[in-house]
Sequence to fold (327 residues):
Amino acid sequence: ERLPALLAAMPKAELHIHIEGSLEPEMIFALAQRNGVALPYADVEALRRAYAFTDLQSFLDIYYAGASVLLYEQDFYDMARAYLLRAAQDNVVHAEIFFDPQTHTARGVAMETVVNGLYRATQDAQAELGTSSSLILCFLRHLSEEDAFATLEQAQPFLDRIIGVGLDSSEVGNPPEKFARVFARCGELGLHRVAHAGEEGPAAYIWSALDVLKVERIDHGVQAIQDPALMRRLAEERIALTVCPLSNLKLCVFPELAQHNIRQLLDAGLAATVNSDDPAYFGGYLNQNFTELFAAVPELTSQHAWQLAHNSFAASFVPDEQRRAWQ
Ligand code: ADE
Ligand code: ZN
Fold:
């Protein structure tokens, strides 16, 4: 292994973590029991055996099934609390946390239940761990724009607890254009905007995330490599990519970690960052993403490590004053 001590010890921000993707199999079973929810898996081992993904959709099917055990405010609190404790061990000093409210409201869970549980965990983490964190509401792109508008309406009373919106779920066939109007409304409301683009989908979706949705960061974005003009734009405008190496490996975006293109992205001047995406499903939290990536790609140096940590703070949505204190 290379540089593991530096990679583990360096302070870092995590900008691409789905909180429902931090739900470990043990917690899924504990919550299922606590809430009386039946699961189509006999035990923790059987559930873990199902974590053999071939693409994004094969993962999403299991990820939404896992989230079905979340019913009460305390469930959301416990899930976020566990993630923030684990992240602190990896020297994550700031996290911008995605959540998927439609997964929960579709089951009759109130938006208030979701937001209150998650938000209380972020407040406690600040007080007890010194970890700052904030919440980004993601719209599910396999659902309609009308459904996204209804979700924004439900979130309206809680917008002081949400720093921005994102776009996730099944990418191919659900282009950014589908959400043009709801993202425009979010812009008027003063919310930060990000979107998953170019994970499995084409570079064209990255262009439209920037030009139509007006996003400030691209989640994943690794398919930008297919389009030299897009690469130049991302570099010139310092648009951050929140890259997730172990996710890309487990969802077969790259056949091997050694073939991951993050070094090419960095060397082309793009503001790439490293993130865990859904750590309970993809085999590791943030430091594991760093150490496995650096072990697999020998061209990555301590200079790249420093750049990645720097990029994570530079691309975060923290106020400039706090950012200056970190850098
Ligand atoms: N939801 C959770 N993880 C995701 C990913 N990697 N891509 C799209 N939607 C997601
Ligand atoms: Zn993601």
In short: Residues 16, 18, 168, 196, 219, 277 surround zinc ion (ligand 2) (CB under 6 Å). The chain is about 50% helix and 15% strand. The radius of gyration is 18 Å.
